[in-house]
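User: Can you help me understand a structure? I only have the sequence.
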Amino acid sequence: MVSISVFFPCYNEQENVGRTIEKALAVLEKLGADFEVIIIDDGSTDDTGRIADDIAGRDNRVRVVHHERNLGYGAALQSGFKAATNELVFYTDGDGQFDISEMPPLLELMEQHDIVTCYRLNRRDSVIRKINGWCWTKLVCLLFGLKIRDIDCAFKLYKREIFDNIELSSTGALIDTEILARAARKGYSMTQKGVHHYPRTAGAQSGANIRVILRAFKELLVLRNRIRGGD
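Assistant: Let's start by predicting it. Here is the structure, written out as tokens:
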């Protein structure tokens, strides 16, 4: 039986979190897995936290981790990995732009690999976000010797043991780069698979915020020096 923890980082996703978790539970039940679902409420200022608590109150397979204030995407992912207790850990965003029914085909890939990092097919974002994403991926792959098609695609499956053996420092947008760079340095194997991407139907994106972007570049240089120095 598959043993898997599935978590969703959420920030102000009151209109999306309910249907996202409902779909996840349906997929996992059909899979017949030993599973848990974790909602990471990253200091939401809307009703995301309350809705998440209501869901968890009705279903003991669902847990909620609350941040008292918004700590950033990287901090939300770190909380999810720390909270996960099963052999595999999968995450995708709580905004509904991915279909979790595309997760089960990733499981067979874990028989030969430690990580499945997906890439977006027909990315449903603005042209500027697509260009920024392509340039960012090329830059980090160049700096860290990675061969990844879509570094920040929020549809990834890991063996949980990886997070017992790497120490993460990123609390912002650099988190995916740090995980994959440190995992590659430790010798963990990874493969890639395309998944569909859908338009956001509710809520607002935060990744294009100029402060988020500048913070990511600053952290990128620090991370590069740390990894080069053996940290």
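Now, to help you interpret it: The chain has a mean pLDDT of 92. The radius of gyration is 17 Å. Let me know which part you'd like to focus on.
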